[in-house]
Write a structure and sequence with these properties.
By secondary structure, the chain is mainly α. The protein has 3 domains: about 90 residues, Fe,Mn superoxide dismutase (SOD) domain (Helix Hairpins, Orthogonal Bundle); about 120 residues, 3-Layer(bab) Sandwich (minor pseudopilin epsh fold); about 55 residues, no CATH class. A hairpin with a 5-residue loop joins strand 1 and strand 2. Helix 2 runs antiparallel to helix 4, helix 3 packs across helix 4 and helix 5 crosses helix 6. Bound molecules: fe (ii) ion. The site of fe (ii) ion has 6 residues, from helix 7.
C-alpha cells in the first residue's frame, strides 16, 4: 500500500463507493410551506427522495453512467428500455430537485408580467394556463408528473410524464414540475390530488422563479430556434394589423397596396402632418391605381419618339 494514499485499485473501489449524487438540501425549512404542504408530509417525502438517491447511486456505480450529470443521465436513459431502472431513478431524483426549487414560502401570487406575456399566446391568460395545468394533472392516469415545458419552437406547453417518458428525452426544457405521486399529496390532501395541485399553483409556486427559468431557457435555445420564434411572433403581430400609421396619417389598407408602394408613399409624402389622414388616403389610392414606374417611363419614351 502507498504510504501517503490509496493504491490505484483502492482508489477505484473508493470511487465506486462514494455517493455520486446527493440529496440537495431544501432552499427553505421543512415547515415553511405549511399549510399548503405540512412539515410531516415534506419530511416523509424527503425520506423517500433520499432512498431514490441511494438506489440511483447503487444502480450506476461502476457503469458507463457513473459520472454523468443528472440531466444528461435522464436524457440518455429515460426513453431506453435497456436502461429503464437507471432512467426511472435518475428521472425521479432530478424531478424532485426541480419540484422543490420552484416552490417557496409566501411567493407573490401575481405572476411577473414577462411570464404572462409568454403564457398568454398559448393559454389565453395566466388563469387559462392554471386551468390547463390543473386539467392536465387530473388527466394523468396513475402516478407521474405534470410539467410546464418549453418545446423546441419555444412554445410553452403543459405535459404529463410517467415511467418511461420524460420531457428531457423528448427535447423539451422543463420549467415547472408538480409531483403527482401519492406520497406527495395524500397526507395533506386525502380528498384528492386536484386540491393539492390547485393549492400549490395558488399559494406555493414561485412564479418569479418560473419566469426567470423560462426566460433563461428561451435565451439558451439555439439561435435558429430563437430566430424562428421571433419570426412567428412577428407573423402573429402582423395578423392583428388593421391599419398602418405613417407619420400622423392613417393608410387604409382596403386598397391593394404592395409593400414597395407603401415604401414609395412614405418617401414621397413630405406633406403628411397632423390631420392629413385624408390626403394620405388619397395618395395611397393614387399610388395603388398608378401603373408601374417602368411602364410610365416606356410610355413617355414612346410619346417622345412620336413627337
Ligand atoms: Fe415525490
Amino acid at each position: 500500500m502507498h504510504a501517503r494514499g490509496l493504491t490505484a485499485s483502492a482508489a477505484r473501489s473508493a470511487l465506486r463507493r462514494r455517493s455520486l449524487h446527493t440529496l440537495k438540501p431544501l432552499p427553505y425549512a421543512a415547515d415553511a410551506l405549511a399549510p399548503h404542504l405540512s412539515s410531516k408530509a415534506i419530511e416523509l417525502h424527503r425520506a423517500a427522495e433520499a432512498d431514490l438517491v441511494a438506489q440511483l447511486n447503487t444502480a450506476i456505480a461502476g457503469t458507463e453512467f457513473e459520472h454523468a450529470a443528472l440531466p444528461e443521465l435522464v436524457a440518455a436513459t429515460s426513453a431506453d428500455a435497456a436502461h429503464a431502472r437507471v432512467g426511472n431513478l435518475a428521472s425521479e431524483v432530478w424531478n424532485h430537485e426541480l419540484y422543490w426549487s420552484r416552490l417557496a414560502p409566501s411567493p407573490d401570487a401575481a405572476p411577473p408580467e414577462q411570464l404572462q406575456q409568454w403564457l398568454e399566446p398559448e393559454f389565453g391568460s395566466f388563469d387559462g394556463f392554471v386551468d390547463r395545468f390543473a386539467s392536465r394533472a387530473r388527466a394523468l392516469w396513475g402516478s407521474g408528473w405534470t410539467w410546464l415545458v418549453l418545446d423546441g419552437s419555444l412554445t410553452p406547453r403543459v405535459v404529463n410524464s410517467f415511467a418511461g417518458c420524460h420531457p428531457l428525452s423528448a427535447g423539451m426544457t422543463p420549467i415547472l414540475a408538480i409531483d403527482l405521486w401519492e406520497h406527495a399529496w395524500v397526507l395533506d390532501y386525502p380528498g384528492g390530488r386536484d386540491a393539492y395541485v390547485r393549492a400549490l399553483l395558488a399559494h406555493a409556486v414561485d412564479w418569479a422563479a418560473v419566469s426567470d427559468a423560462l426566460v433563461a431557457a428561451a435565451n439558451g435555445a439555439p439561435e435558429s430556434a430563437k430566430l424562428r420564434h421571433l419570426v412567428s411572433l412577428s407573423a402573429a403581430d402582423m395578423k392583428k394589423l388593421r391599419s398602418v400609421v405613417i407619420d400622423h396619417g392613417t393608410l387604409d389598407l382596403s386598397e391593394d397596396l404592395s409593400l414597395s408602394k407603401l415604401h414609395l408613399l412614405g418617401a414621397a409624402d413630405p406633406a403628411a402632418d397632423a390631420g392629413a389622414g385624408a390626403a394620405v388616403h388619397e395618395a395611397a389610392a393614387a399610388v395603388a391605381r398608378a401603373p408601374p414606374a417602368s411602364s410610365v417611363a416606356e410610355g413617355e419614351a414612346d410619346a417622345a419618339a412620336k413627337s
